[in-house]
Amino acid sequence: MRHYPLFADLRDRPVLLAGAGKVAERKAESLLSAGARVRVVAETLNPQFQQWVTEGKIVWLGGLFEEAMLDEVYFVIAATDNGMFNRRVFEVAERRAKLCNTVDTADLCSFIVPAVVDRGSLKIAISSAGTAPVLARKWRQIIETLIPLHTGTMARIAGKWREKVKQTIHHVERRRYFWEKLFDSRFSIFAAQNNIEAAERELITQLNRETPFGGEVVLVGAGPGDPGLLTIHALQAIQAADTVFYDALVSDEILAMVRKDAVKISVGKRAGAHHVQQEETNRLLVEHAQKGERVVRLKGGDPFVFGRGGEEVQTLHQAGIAYRIVPGITAALGATAYAGIPLTHRDCAQSALFVTGHSKHEGSQPDWQTLALSRQTLVIYMGTLKAAEIAGKLMAYGRQPSTPVAVISNGTLPNQTVRTGRLKDLGLLAAEAERPALMVIGEVVALRDEMKWFGEFVECYEEAA
Ligand code: SAH
After folding, report:
1. Can you say how many angstroms the Cα of residue 198 is from the centroid of all Cα atoms in its chain?
2. Residues whose beta carbon lies within 6 Å of some atom of ligand 1
3. Active-site position among 27, 98, 242, 247
4. Could you tell me which residues are beta bridge partners of residue 437?
5. Which family is this sequence assigned to (predicted)?
C-alpha cells in the first residue's frame, strides 16, 4: 500500500498554504472548514484572500518563502502556478520531515487529498493514488447517490450515545449487532425526517430491550467468481459476518470483500485435495452460531446446486440454529453466459440439464438414455476427470459424436478460458482444462462463434474438413 489513508483533525492546528490564487482558494476553503489555522505565503492575494486576511481568518506571511515558516505547521500545500517555487517548497518540506501536497503534481506530493463524500461525521474518502483523479471523482458521484443524506444525522446521534451504549452493552459483538439492528430499523426513518427526538427515543427503547442474542448462519452463494455477480443480500451478509467459512471455489476477489475483521476459515475442498470433512464443517457451523456469532457459510455458485447446502441446512435445522439462504448464480448460468453460450435456444435446445459427473454412491448409474437425447443442453459439473467416459456413454446411447462441446475453465474470472470441439474429443479437451471447469454439451455451443464476448478463446478442435 503506497498511501496510508488517514483523517486528520486540523482544528486549531496551523498549516501553510503557498499561493493565493483560484486553486489555493479552494484549498483554503476546505482547510478553513476543517478549522485549521491557515497561513499563506504569496506575493499577491486575490480578493477572497484579501477578505479572509481582513476578517482575521487567515494570516498572510508575505511573498518570500522561508524555511522557518515550516517550523510550527503540521503540513504544507503548494498551490502556486510557479512550478519552480512549488518544487522548492516541496524540497524544503521533505528536508524538514513535513508532509507536502503540491497541487496537480504527483511527484511533488508526500500526501494526496482524496475526493470526499461528506455526510457530516460520516465521510468517505476516495483516491486513485494520484493516477486518475477523474476516476476517483466519478466514483464519488456514484457513492453520493448510494448514501442517503440522513446518514450524517444517524452518525451524529450515534456519536452522542456511543458511551452510554458501551456502558450498557459490554460485549463487543453484541454492541455491533445492536448498532446494525438500530440503523436498519425505524431509527433510520426518524433520522431521515430529521426527527431527532423520535430517533433518540427509538434508540433508548432498543437499548433497554432485553432481546436474547442468538447467532445465525447465512448460507451464501458467492456466484461463479466475478464479484460483480454477488447479490446485494450476499454482499450485505459477508460484510456483517463475524465468521466466514468458505470453500476453495470462492474467488480471492470475493474474499477480499468480506468484513475486514471477520475470521475467515477455509473448509475448502477440491476433488483429490486434502479438505475438512463435511461432518466437521457442519459441526463448526453449529458451534460458532451457538456462541452467538453471525456465521456466513460462503459457497461457490449457488449453495443448493451440487453444493451440499442441503446437508448443512439439515444439520442447522436439527440443532435449532436460525438460518437464512442467499441464492447465488450457479456455474451453469454464470460460466455459460460469460462464454457466450445460451443454455436454450428455440432453434436447437428446448431444455437444459444440470448434471454432476461425480456421485456419492458409485453404484447409482445416471439415466444415460435421457441424458443422450438430442435437442437439449447438458451441463456437467465436476466432470472433467470422467470426461472421456461420459462422452463414450453419451455416444453409445445415441448422441452424435459431432455434437459441439465446450469446456469452460475459471468461468467469469479474468483468466476464464473456453475450449470448444466435438463430443468425441471431450476427453482430450477436458484433460487440458484448468479447474474448476464446466462441460457443456449441445448444439448451443456452436452459437458461441457469434456470441462470445469475454475472456480468451484458447483452442478449437475442429473436425478435419
Ligand atoms: N455450487 C456450485 C457448484 C459446486 S460443484 C455452483 O452452483 O456453481 C463444483 C463444480 O462447479 C466444479 O467442479 C465445476 O464443474 C463447477 N464450477 C464452479 N465454479 C466454476 C467456474 N467459475 N468455472 C467453471 N466451472 C465452475
Report:
1. 34
2. 224-225, 249, 299-302, 305-307, 330-331, 335, 381-382, 408, 410-412, 436-438
3. 247
4. 409
5. In the N-terminal section; belongs to the precorrin-2 dehydrogenase / sirohydrochlorin ferrochelatase family.
Mean pLDDT for the chain?
Answer: 91
Q: Which residues of 430-462 are buried (b: 16+ CB within 10 A; e: fewer)?
A: beebebbbbbbbbbbbbbbeeebeebeebeeee
| Residues 304, 310 contacting (CB under 8 angstroms) | yes
Residue 272 pLDDT more than 50? Answer: no
Q: Which of 7, 14, 12 is nearest to 70 (CA)?
A: 14
pLDDT attached to residue 132: 84
- Pair 100, 75: CB distance under 8 Å: yes
Specify the pTM. 0.67
Region 250-266: what's the mean pLDDT?
A: 91
DSSP collapsed to 3 states, the chain: CCCCCCCCCCCCCEEEEECCCHHHHHHHHHHHHCCCEEEEECCCCCHHHHHHHHCCCEEECCCCCCHHHHCCCCEEEECCCCHHHHHHHHHHHHHCCCEEEECCCHHHCCCCCCEEEEECCEEEEECCCCCCHHHHHHHHHHHHHHCCCCHHHHHHHHHHHHHHHHHHCCCHHHHHHHHHHHHCCHHHHHHHCCCHHHHHHHHHHHHHCCCCCCCEEEEEECECCCHHHCCHHHHHHHHHCCEEEECCCCCHHHHCCCCCCCEEEECCCCCCCCCCCHHHHHHHHHHHHHCCCEEEEEECECCCCCCCHHHHHHHHHHHCCEEEEECCCCHHHHHHHHHCCCCCECCCECEEEEEECCCCCCCCCCCHHHHCCCCEEEEEECCHHHHHHHHHHHHHCCCCCCCEEEEEECCCCCCCEEEEEEHHHHHHHHHHCCCCEEEEECHHHHHHHHHCCCCEEEEECCCCC
In the predicted structure, residue 168 carries a pLDDT above the cut 90: yes
Which atom of ligand 1 is closest in space to residue 251's alpha carbon?
A: 22
Please say if the pLDDT value at position 89 is more than 90: yes
